[in-house]
Amino acid sequence: MQKNVASTDAARKAGGDSLPDAVPFGSQITLWLRERWDIVAIACLALAPLFIPALGGALGGQVTTLFIYCILALGLNVMVGYTGLVHLGIAAFFGIGAYVMAILTVPMYPFQIGFLAAAILSTLVAAGVGLALGAPTLRLRGDYLAIVTLGFGEVVKVTLRNLEQITGGMKGLNPVPPPGAGVQIGGIDLGLAFAIDPRWFYYLSLGVLIGVVIAMRRLENSRLGRAWVAVRENELAASAMGISATRVKLSAFAMSSAVAGLAGCLYAASLSTTADPNAYDFNRSIMVLCAVILGGLGSIPGTLLGVTILVGFDTVLAPWADSWIQQMNINPTGSSLLSFSGWRLAIFGVALVLVMRFRPEGLVPSRRLAAELRQEHS
């Protein structure tokens, strides 16, 4: 012990007291929170229903929808953030997942398989459709690829609307049974529990979101994730280094579509219906894209923050503000100019303009993208 102290003192004298001082305790906590923000967030979200009774009511359903949109945005981030491919039709794969889930589970069809099997098949079907879309469009870039994905989204919406005998047309398919329907564990009917208490769906969607975040982190640091980024930076240089740009792009299409399909099957199960095809239109794709851009391209925490701000504003704050305006009798005629939700698109636009002007890398950008933008502006 005395030798260690003596050697430390000698080192300080030799180096001019260059050894760093002890880090203050407050700074240690701040550093730990920055590095382990995900653990803190998971703990807070897991404990929230125990301390916030409103999560057992309508608020629980709204937060569940927020989790589902986070999953959808993480899927889009694979295409736009990691691979640099413009995608304006992510809502189409969201709808495909929802309708495949409904077809496999609703009583009007003979399949009526369990939730887990239906979720796996919905994810695989969405991934297959993504591969089918990506294969003929690999040579397209930029605006041309954006136009193709936009057109594909509109084709899917119109197809779902016109195939009334299969999709129910504008009525959609219902009732989609809840997870665990007909299954009893410990005397608890899981299907009934999911139907009565929104907190069951809350924890289910939170668990799936955690699994997707972990998978995205593993992919981001894997060989495939680095290949995505390489193709985004310079496709020609990546090909010269032995990376198959065709396979990388196809994998991005498949992964993005699969995650979107998974979000869609959760969405249909949580609502007990697919809703009408207009729920999967271009506006839905743009809203998710705006959330990814606002939070930061290629950044998992940025994507989650962007969805929380935009979708949380749209699904939680706007209905609450409209209800408050109605209770205060501020808008007795129901004018859209005096309703809070009537201005949400304008607020979205202003927020994006401000972010692009003052923080183009997003609110919580990835380190790589932030460094690239700083080099461009320097």
List keywords for this structure.
about 375 residues, two-stranded antiparallel sheet, disordered N terminus, mainly alpha, single chain
Descriptive notes:
With 378 residues, the chain is mostly helical. It is 71% helix and 1% strand. It contains 17 helices and two strands. It has a two-stranded antiparallel ribbon with strand order 1-2. Strand 1 and strand 2 form a beta hairpin. The longest helix is centred in the last third of the chain and has 28 residues. It is globular and about 60 Å long. The N and C termini lie far apart (50 Å).
Q: How would you summarize what this structure contains?
A:
With 378 residues, the chain is mainly α. The protein is built from 17 helices and 2 strands.
How far apart are the termini? 50 Å
How large is the share of residues in beta strands?
under 5%
Please state how the strands of the largest beta sheet are arranged side by side. 1-2
User: What composes the largest sheet?
Assistant: 2 strands, antiparallel
User: What order do the helices and strands follow?
Assistant: HHHHHHHHEEHHHHHHHHH
Shape: globular
Low-confidence stretches: 1-8, 10-20
**Total strand segments:** 2
List the helices and strands and how they pair.
Blueprint: H1 2-14, H2 25-35, H3 37-51, H4 58-83, H5 90-105, H6 115-134, H7 142-162, H8 164-167, E1 184-185, E2 188-189, H9 190-196, H10 198-220, H11 223-233, H12 235-240, H13 245-271, H14 282-295, H15 300-327, H16 344-358, H17 367-377
Antiparallel strand pairs: 1-2
Helix pairs in contact: 3-10, 4-10, 4-13, 4-14, 4-15, 5-6, 5-7, 5-13, 6-13, 9-10, 11-13, 14-15
